[in-house]
Write a structure and sequence with these properties.
With about 375 residues, the protein is α/β, with parallel strands linked by helices. The chain folds into two domains: about 260 residues, Alpha-Beta Barrel (TIM Barrel); about 80 residues, no CATH class. Helix content is about 40%, strand content about 15%. The strands form four sheets. Strands 1, 2, 3, 4, 5 and 12 form a six-stranded parallel beta sheet that branches. Strand 2, helix 2 and strand 3 form a beta-alpha-beta unit. The longest helix has 23 residues. The protein starts with 6 loop residues before the first strand and ends with a helix. It binds zinc ion. Zinc ion binds next to strand 3. The site of zinc ion (ZN) has 5 residues, from strand 3.
């Protein structure tokens, strides 16, 4: 007989404007209920993996990443209907003001306090909002949960709030230039660090929790900025396709490299470690302060981590962390590297097969070997 594994499902949005619509989510939970799956909490899974308790054969953990408002509006009332628990990994720096009253959700529709059309509609401000909130802590981000909504969900016993870092931020990870700062990015502050002059090179990014920051060659940046300036500034970009702009500016990079050594460098290992420690600790403290509980678990932003980051997470008090790697979660398994299954398509067959595979350790391992990271 194949030994069992616990399937940890990873959701982001449950929303009428997303692949996982409320009715799709409802169907999935009904399927779990009708086909003998046991929804267990993350606490129970961690205890099971440590050998401190037995888990049912067909066990499933439900998780949400990021903390979008639609978790409150749609997912939470549906989970409540089935009395299924879930863990919500919150980007704590993005949680709204604790004095903001809770917004309407599906329960209010059922109680006739509002109509379905009054419910929140998802915006598209996720990425720009990250750096803007970091610069301006009072800025309201309507797409994210508030502390009051988190508090109500936590108090219900249905939602267990845990950490997804404070800012979910990314940094330049190496010297590979992927694009340049163009006028269309002026309101998109997210990928641009420091110098916001047109023509600034933008490098490949990675999670701030898993990579030392690359500091690009200032002379190369200056050369590109001056080139754009000499060729009309904003006018340089007018009527040009982005691919052509990138091509022209890459030519400037090539010319620069032909006669200069690129003088980029990486931040010190110690400053990277300090950054990770501060971020992980502050996020844990945010949850503990606002929700009056111990925050024990962390989901790595974009699933990116390394051995040092894991050691830091352990040091600041996280007892387990979840990844975006596929695989099996079994007794004796590594609780610092809990595996997950991403639910991001509405197809019923994919959901059923995903459950079947990930509740059987051998199938889950084979599948992970074939398809790796989520
Ligand atoms: Zn995330």
């Amino acid at each position: 007989m194949i030994s069992p594994s616990t399937a940890v499902l990873l959701y982001h949005h449950v929303d009428p404007h997303d692949a996982i619509k409320p009715e799709v989510f409802d169907w999935q939970l009904k399927y779990l209920q009708q086909h003998g799956y046991s929804v267990v909490s993350l606490d129970e899974l961690v205890q099971g993996m440590k050998g401190e308790r037995d888990l049912p054969k067909k066990s499933v953990v439900i998780t949400f990443d990021d903390g979008f408002l639609n978790t409150w509006v749609y997912a939470y009332p549906i989970l409540k209907k089935y009395q299924f628990k879930a863990t919500l990994f919150m980007i704590t720096g993005l949680a709204g003001n604790p004095s903001t009253p809770p917004r309407f959700n599906l329960e209010d529709v059922l109680k006739r306090k509002c109509q379905e059309k009054d419910l929140y509609r998802r915006g598209h401000i996720f990425h720009p909002s990250l750096s803007e909130r970091a610069c301006d802590p009072d800025r309201e981000l309507p797409d994210f949960l508030t502390w009051k909504e988190l508090k109500i969900m936590e108090a219900s016993g249905i939602i267990d709030v845990q950490s997804h870092s404070r800012w979910h931020s990314s940094v330049y990870r190496n010297e590979k230039i992927v694009e340049f700062h163009i006028p269309a990015f002026i309101n998109r502050k997210w990928p641009i660090e420091g110098d916001c002059r047109l023509g600034t090179p933008l490098y490949q990014r990675g999670s701030a929790m898993a990579t030392r920051k690359y500091l690009g060659d200032p002379l190369l940046a200056e050369t590109l900025i001056q080139y754009v300036h000499r060729h009309g500034g904003e006018d340089f970009f007018k009527g040009k396709r982005k691919a052509d702009i990138d091509k022209a500016l890459m030519e400037v990079v090539r010319a620069y490299k032909a006669c200069h050594k690129v003088e980029g460098c990486y931040e010190e290992e110690s400053s990277w470690q300090k950054r990770v420690k501060t971020e992980l600790l502050e996020s844990k403290q945010d949850i503990e302060k606002h929700l009056n509980k111990t925050c024990r678990y962390l989901a790595w932003p974009w699933g990116e981590y390394n051995d040092t980051a894991l050691a830091i997470a352990r040091e600041v008090g996280y007892e387990a962390t979840v990844t975006t790697q596929r695989g099996a979660n079994v007794p004796g398994g590594d609780v610092m590297r809990i595996k997950r299954v991403k639910i991001w398509k509405p197809g019923r067959l994919a959901f059923v097969l995903g459950l079947l595979i990930h509740t059987h350790a051998a199938f889950a391992r084979i599948y992970a070997r074939l398809y790796g990271q989520l």
